[in-house]
Amino acid sequence: MNSFTESQRFRQWWLWAIMLGVTALMFVMFAGVAGLWLSWLTILLASLLLLSCRLDTRYDQAGIHYRFWPFMRWRTIAWTDVSRASVTQYDFVGYGIRWNFGEWVYNIAGNQGLRIETVAGKRILLGTQRPDELRAFLQTLPLPVLRHQ
């Protein structure tokens, strides 16, 4: 295995239920009100933005590559810049891009991810829905910084 790639999207049923509920509530409350098209447009754009959001990660011999589209371009952390990395389970930290207790968190769903600490002291948590496959790939790398749990 030369690389491990994962692409995650917001697919939680409850998230879409909330969006649909808010839309229905607005329709009932403001039916016939002039200027309602602006509210509908706002909800439509928010829904489309949520649909398009995705966390892409790629791990290969060179390092860790990740982006949170459409908000962030590809970023790369070379393995030589990593002081520690481990696949871990964590408490709920929220969804999206977050600053949480001294580390950047990129998470779409779930509570598992790769926790990274760089040589410069930067801490990053990249969510994953496939922790076992990620762990298996990391074990193929000849890197002493990886802690396999």
Automatic annotation (TrEMBL):
Transmembrane segments: 12-31, 37-55
Source organism, top-level taxon: Bacteria
Keywords annotated in UniProt: Membrane, Transmembrane, Transmembrane helix
Protein name: PH (Pleckstrin Homology) domain-containing protein
